[in-house]
Specification:
There is one protein chain. This protein has helices at 3-15, 36-50, 56-61, 65-74. It has a single domain (3-74), classed as Non-ribosomal Peptide Synthetase Peptidyl Carrier Protein, Chain A, CATH 1.10.1200. The protein is mostly helical and 79 residues long. The longest helix has 15 residues, at 36-50. It is built from four helices and no strands.
Length: 79
């Protein structure tokens, strides 16, 4: 499984959505289910899956599908 597939699996697990739904518009403003609990679930799974410890700024900035990808890239994870 590629890193991008792992990343997509996190979002499909947390939100119960399909990979086809993920993209530029998948963010907390456009996804009604996106709340603080879902955001913490994403962070927890990102840290576990990619063996990371994200700093508070990254945790707060993870408010969209694309932002999460940028955070992983910043932390040395190639997608």
């Amino acid at each position: 499984m590629t890193n991008l597939e792992k990343y997509n699996a996190i979002f499909t697990e947390v939100f119960g959505t399909s990979v086809e739904q993920l993209g530029d518009n998948y963010n907390k403003e456009n996804v009604s289910e996106w709340d603080s609990v879902h955001q913490l679930n994403i962070i927890s799974l990102l840290e576990e899956t990619f063996d990371l410890m994200l700093d508070p700024e990254d945790i707060m900035a993870c408010t969209s599908y694309n932002a999460g990808k940028e955070i992983l890239t910043k932390n040395g994870i190639e997608l």
